[in-house]
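Side project, low priority. Logging it here so it doesn't get lost.
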Amino acid sequence: MAWYDEAIFYHIYPLGLTGTPKGNDYGAPVPRLRALFPWIDHIRALGCNALYIGPLFQSVGHGYETTDYYTLDARLGTNQDLIDFVAACHASGIRVIFDAVFNHTGRDFFAFRDLREHREHSPYRDWYCSVNFWGDNSYHDGFSYENWGGYDLLAKLNQRNPSVRDYLLEVVRFWVNTFDVDGLRLDAADVLDFDFMRALRGLANEVKPEFWLMGEVIHGDYSRWVNGQTLHSVTDYALHKALYSGHNDHNYFEIAHTVDRTFRMAGHSPFRLYNFTDNHDVARIASKLRDPAHFLPVHVLLYALPGVPSLYYGSEWAIPGEKHRGGSDDAIRPALRLEDFAAEEPHAALISALGAVRRQVKALSWGDYRQLHLTNRQFAFSRTLEGQQVIAAVNCDDNAADLSLPAWDGQVYTGALSGARVQAGGGSLRFTLPPKGGELWVTGEISADPLPQLDFAAPEEPRAAVETPEPPAVPVPGKPVEQMTVAELQAAILAKMAQNGPVTDEMRRTVFENNHLGSLRNWVNSFR
């Protein structure tokens, strides 16, 4: 039993949470990372036992244009600050994984600087993909190169070069030996070289017991990445989208079918994907839900469905935040002060209760999954493990719903959120779900305080509306996928979707939120 199979993650984007300047002047280190020490107790109180934090290392601006993999970003402090922070997390029983930005570097990275200075004579000319000294780039260096997402600021590393591969593997060894990190979240894993990921998996098995590799993958057959040779897990963007749009559209079929599709991908192998409602790249869940009260059933599903649940900092208080087309990500990566939020805030109370249940009830981490009931507005399933069963049920309707579900006859089920006790009779468990409600019915003893009546009504200041993105550019007929821009790829995807049926606002929004060039190419090619 590995630690990550029972993990509940908290996710911090440190450059945002600590309010760092947008640009790095590479001056004297400022120990802003130490402002996160009080958050460790908060993370633990929410029931989380793992932390994904990053990006952390020296960079130009937002953190994903790495300039030095061996040094903590000066805007956050020194390496000693990071050593102390990870040690404090470990002392509180919290595992830590770092953001590993190995697909590309910033232009201030030593190898790229040498390439700019020495051009054809640089020993690092093969460290980057598709370097062409007959071309040019947006910085007018007099040569072109492959980038990530259409941004020349992010120069794509050639992971098939043995020198690059060895360099990055040595970086991982340094992170483990210096900071005692427990795993990596691989940025842009959907465009990383598979041989490189196999080498990483071999290193993971070597450097530390249960060292975890989780990749950022937007679309595709997740089993290509999650297997015994490459990664342990990837981000489940399909479920992320289904969780909010399934509630906005009162369509639990979308969520149930997304889960079924994941099981078909997995076959008979263990398949625990990284589940989330929001992160540093997409709008906050509070801004995506049309009905604020759906916060409860959404999070019941997040904690009860198969996979590894993750909570993005600040969303335990349902803070809003929109990702704007052509604008900055500041609204979804804000600076926050822990003292500005009340411990008894209702959303955080729900998250804490769900965290406590998930950590007590092993069936929610390891149990099998069986769908019990499915309509547009009610959804129920069981998770069963070694004589214990959990029945998870949610209701997105404005009215209460009476349910009768298959259950273990004669067993007493305890509502982990309500504290109610119901005995199954005639092979069925009968109960009433409140409007926009949810419950986890657990057999056996469970230590959980019943939640008070929680008010998830909209605050006095209205939440930011979920914007319908403007349609991207019209796709160019006959243009090769490899030559399309992000906007053209988005347009091509929407056009292919339209051939299969009506395209909803939620579907358009999902396409717009993906600005990963490699992922969009894979998505276009996935259509039959």
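Brief comment: Confidence is low (pLDDT under 50) at residues 458-473.
Revisit when time allows.
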